[in-house]
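## Example record

The block below lists the input lines for one assembly entry, exactly as stored, with component labels intact.
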Amino acid sequence: MPYYIGDVIKEEKKLIARTPEKFRETGVEVRIDTRVEEVDGKAGEVRLADGTRLPYDILVLGTGTTPLLPGIPGEDREGVFTLKTFTDALRIKAWLREVPCRKAIIIGAGFIGMEMSEAIRNLGIETQVFHRGTLPVNRWDPEFSQVVLDELRRHQVDFVTDAETKAIEAGKDHRLRLVTNHGEAEADMILMAVGIRPEVTLAKQMGLPLGETGAIRVNFSQMTPREGVYAVGDCCESFHRVSGHWVNIPLGDIANKQGRVAGRNIGGGAMIFPGIVGAQSFQVFDLEVAATGLDERAAAAVGFHPVSMLSWGNAIAGPMPGNTKLGLKLIADRATGRLLGAQAVGEAGAVSRINTLSCALWAGLTLDDVGYLDLAYAPPFSGSWDLIHIAAQALRRQI
Amino acid sequence: MPYYIGDVIKEEKKLIARTPEKFRETGVEVRIDTRVEEVDGKAGEVRLADGTRLPYDILVLGTGTTPLLPGIPGEDREGVFTLKTFTDALRIKAWLREVPCRKAIIIGAGFIGMEMSEAIRNLGIETQVFHRGTLPVNRWDPEFSQVVLDELRRHQVDFVTDAETKAIEAGKDHRLRLVTNHGEAEADMILMAVGIRPEVTLAKQMGLPLGETGAIRVNFSQMTPREGVYAVGDCCESFHRVSGHWVNIPLGDIANKQGRVAGRNIGGGAMIFPGIVGAQSFQVFDLEVAATGLDERAAAAVGFHPVSMLSWGNAIAGPMPGNTKLGLKLIADRATGRLLGAQAVGEAGAVSRINTLSCALWAGLTLDDVGYLDLAYAPPFSGSWDLIHIAAQALRRQI
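Predicted structure tokens for the full assembly:
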């Protein structure tokens, strides 16, 4: 996460180095910089890279994700990065400082691509994003992705659409040269942020069943179909309370929750992970971008009858100073009136609305409920009809 | 509302003057500056101050509230104000400008007292608040009222506690002199903000039954027990979805919703007002102050078994720049784990959390739900465990 680039890194590094010591007091042995090469499920043993074998009664897989690579010549060159681990962040930080970096290229326009384009641009580095599609962040509908694109361009981030990357070569004016279907572009660093997949090498090797998402199957207790083997975080699936399906949404807050649930159950407690509703957000420059639940395509795919409406309104009461525009799109089921999803974009107030609507999705509320929710009104915080009410009622009338 | 003092007033005045004209096009006659003296329910007639009698089939009472006065000598002096109507705001604004006002006294420390102390102080006027209690805003528990008090004092608002007002006399250095149990204080204006009561004169005169709150009884369609007579807004009761009782919470957003429900039903539609959960908020200087649901006393009074816990945490992720402290107190029922109420105070993020928790109250969620709600996490907006999660889990462990 780009937010950790900066002075925070020093603190985190100290924290990580202290981890084994910290846990020793509690009787837990933590090994860092240690790679597990193989799990022998029958013997109940884990084999480390150095050949050591460690027995286990309970095994927890928290293997996370692996960044995808486009698979082009030169993607292993010095100065080409992916961003997954803490070490990746340290390497990028050092590279930006030491090269020094005057221009950066980011390939991909998802969360990592957006957050890193802000982080790098804010260092005064010329920044160019290459994206295979026409609009960034495809979790959001085009009306809102366009707002994100405008925000990038407003901050002098160059956004190249419909880009196919062909190769990375040595550059002339800069360290590297990216060859694309649109010609060549040079830069001092290239960040590959084209996506991730759940890291399930060990799980596969153990013969654990994967779900349709390619992530490890778990139950509500975070246990895999194999007794005593748990999985948590980005490498496993979560129950989506709106779609009723098991999904793989790799996000840090979900991983935290699942870890705690697994730990409680392993420790002899009884706890379930109640699932997710797909809430997510990011900031890019002055823009809050947030979404929750299903978009229309996902809703239709699981058999809902989606209707939707995009409403533009005010983040706070219309006449108040500091007011900014806020866009809110709601998706609901025509058959039942149930809220299915929401997306929001604005300089302020987008995440706040999406959190309230995430709670509404969690509880299965309908547009009738959402249109009359009792929210804490005061002019510095909303109109007496909040955009949530206005949007829900507008969509309700459409049904 | 102090927020409308300023240039906005001109716009509102124009708007009000245009109201009759605007409605005439739709076939609706709107009379402004018109006082109804009496309602003859049997004849189905309304009698105006000038003696005119107007027949009706349907009657809607939207009589609002009347500000309370302490009942002390001199409270009718020029320069002593209450703040309810738009005209009150215009009068205060003119007085502040024309006297001119160097010092103001506010009697009372509720919403109006707090918002007006900010509005007046921000004009550079010396401001003094007299309050009969020791802490402002008694809707909030003392831990949070103290934060509000600190904020007032940080902005040089003088707050006088345990004050009994005795009389208002002509002043020497300023226009007016307030006599209290703590001696005398002079000011150029005095605002009485000691509370309000539902304005039910007409309702009583018609023989409409009032609830225990003193406000007009209505059903879910906003109709009073008398067929064809409706009541909406601050003069009537609302169903509180958490307490299961009918309450009178005079707030503009509730009034708006009830008005729409009554209108829809009168117009031949079918709609109910689904009730409230007690969400409210105000801003005072740099502080967001918000609450929802029941406090412990109100919860115990209706037979819940309240437990509560106050958690201090971060408005956004701990290491992020711009982070500020946020306090969140949750109240829940020990018997069922159900969330009953919440209070929050902070420079940012308080209203946002209270809105999400208001939705949780609306849906009757438990602490187990709230502790694992799927919220839109990103470091500029929250920690990976939001304070909502932390507070709910901490309280859950106490049960």
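Chain A touches chain B through 59 residues (CB under 8 Å). The CA atoms of residues 134 and 161 of chain A lie 5 Å apart.
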